[in-house]
Design goal:
single chain; alpha/beta; D-tyrosyl-trna(Tyr) Deacylase, Chain: A; 3 domains; about 25% strand
């Protein structure tokens, strides 16, 4: 059959166009958008310190991929792996259980023996939930306890982590180690209330534990509020059993009411103090001590308290980047899937086995505690993007995406890109450590398409990278 010249010309033209198209596509996928490049240059951050991956969820290849396979410290964006793997393995309706047992005979409303609390690793046994649990115990007729408070914390292996180890801030609640019976994040919420009539600062503690003494030598002044935390000079004294918080320095009337959380007691001592306080408020009587032991054989179950669902827990972890809850969930995941007692080794093994089932190869992945409060954890932008792509097609996708901060609306993205056209159109998890800035999540662009956007930056000037990351999100939203 003779070859037609016009057909040859058309075929040649198509081949040239296809080659040009491929060349152009490869070009745009490896070059930073101008606004992003400019913002990085202004921040003094080289491209070699950045890992970026942007992909349409309906496409088979990325729109933008730069340093995508390099291993980066992801800071809190690693919580995406912790929460998604937990939602997949445990289900969004999973709940934790805390139990209370009587180790002794009940004579009317008097327990002639010990009260035993068994922790199940609940990530969110808050002050309110703990009070409801004790109120339930009182409603069942128990009033006087003639024994000790015994804590069964054996569901987690004992964690001897020094709270000062990460950043030398042992009183900050985000450094609180996980515990099988973690109550109220082991936190004290201090309110700083200026009293202009007395020209003095009031410091109110919630809860007001007997083991914690607050000494107030603060001077009230009329200076600009400024960095009010560092103007207060805190000296924390004591041990895990008791603590003295000495406040000195100055506090400005212009600051109005402020609050800040502190962690100063050991886990057992905190539970003992809070239990004693609330039990008295509920009309109960208790004067015993506290000690650790497993639930004795023959102990009688009195109360079984269940927490919120995992879907709600994941929302708190991701929206507000709660490190303590993330570490609790990470450990619980290992215990639930591989057996108690929980350990970080079991949790890492559980997640990596799940990744294998999902056919997600992450050779660079390094896990420590699943929260991002780590100098060890590593993942690449490509791996994080592939995780998000898998989540997009998962049955737990609605719960997972809804757990991420909504740009300019809530969580850690509440104050970013306010007033921009992307406001309310992206669910983005953030991460921040000294030398680390990270974002990862979903952008719903101007034409209704869904894009996965990941940007990991490890550099001494990473804290100046907000403008570059916001520019990347804006570019993804407005893309042609």
């Amino acid at each position: 059959m003779p070859c037609r010249p016009d057909l040859l010309i058309r075929l040649l033209f198509a081949a040239i166009c296809a080659l040009a198209s491929c060349t152009f596509a490869a070009d745009i996928s490896t070059r930073l958008p101008p606004a992003v490049a400019e913002a990085l240059a202004q921040a003094g951050i080289p491209e070699g310190s950045v890992g970026i991956y942007v992909q349409d969820t309906q496409a088979s290849r990325p729109l933008l991929a730069i340093g995508e396979e390099r291993a980066f410290n992801p800071a809190s964006t690693i919580k995406l792996l912790t929460t998604f793997s937990a939602l997949e393995q445990l289900g969004p309706a999973y709940q934790w259980t805390t139990e209370i047992y009587a180790d002794g005979a009940l004579d009317g409303d008097v327990l002639n023996g010990n009260l035993v609390m068994k922790g199940g690793g609940d990530p969110r046994l808050t002050l309110e939930n703990f009070w409801l649990m004790l109120r339930n115990l009182r409603a069942r007729g128990v009033r006087e306890i003639r024994g000790d408070l015994v804590l069964d914390r054996s569901y987690f292996a004992r964690d001897e982590t020094d709270p000062a180890e990460f950043d030398n801030e042992p009183t900050r609640p985000y450094n609180t180690p996980p515990d099988a019976l973690l109550v109220n994040f082991k936190a004290l919420r201090l309110q700083f209330v200026p009293d202009t009539q007395r020209q003095a600062l009031r410091i109110l503690s919630e809860p007001a534990l007997q083991q914690v003494q607050i000494l107030n030598n603060v001077t009230l002044d009329n200076e600009p509020c400024g960095d009010w935390v560092n103007r207060l000079k805190l000296t924390a004294l004591g041990d895990r059993a008791s603590a003295r918080l000495l406040f000195a320095g100055n506090y400005s009337i212009a600051c109005g009411d402020k609050e800040r959380n502190y962690s100063v007691l050991g886990h057992a001592q905190y539970v003992h103090g809070l239990f004693s306080l609330l039990w008295r408020e509920l009309g109960g009587t208790f004067s015993g001590g506290v000690r650790d032991a497993v639930v004795p054989a023959g102990a009688r179950l009195l109360v079984s308290h269940q927490t919120q669902s995992l879907a709600e827990i994941a929302r708190d972890i991701n929206k507000f980047s709660n490190n303590v809850m993330a570490r609790q969930l990470y450990l619980a995941l290992g215990a639930i899937t591989l057996g108690a007692p929980a350990s970080t080794e079991k949790s890492a093994r559980s997640i990596k086995q799940w990744l294998t089932v999902q056919r997600l190869a992450m050779p660079e992945l390094a896990l420590e505690n699943g929260s991002g409060l780590s100098r060890v954890e590593r993942i690449s932008a490509k791996s994080l993007a592939q995780l998000l792509l898998t989540a997009q097609h998962s049955a737990v996708m609605p719960e997972f995406i809804a757990s991420l901060p909504l740009v300019a609306v809530d969580g850690t993205m509440k104050k970013r890109l306010t007033g921009a056209d992307i406001a309310g159109q992206a669910h983005i998890k953030t991460g921040s450590l000294t030398g680390v800035r990270a974002i990862a999540g979903y952008v719903f662009d101007a034409k209704g398409r869904t894009l996965i956007v990941v940007c990991l930056i490890n550099h001494p000037r990473a804290q100046s990278a907000l403008a570059a990351q916001d520019a990347l999100l804006t570019w993804a939203y407005r893309r042609p």
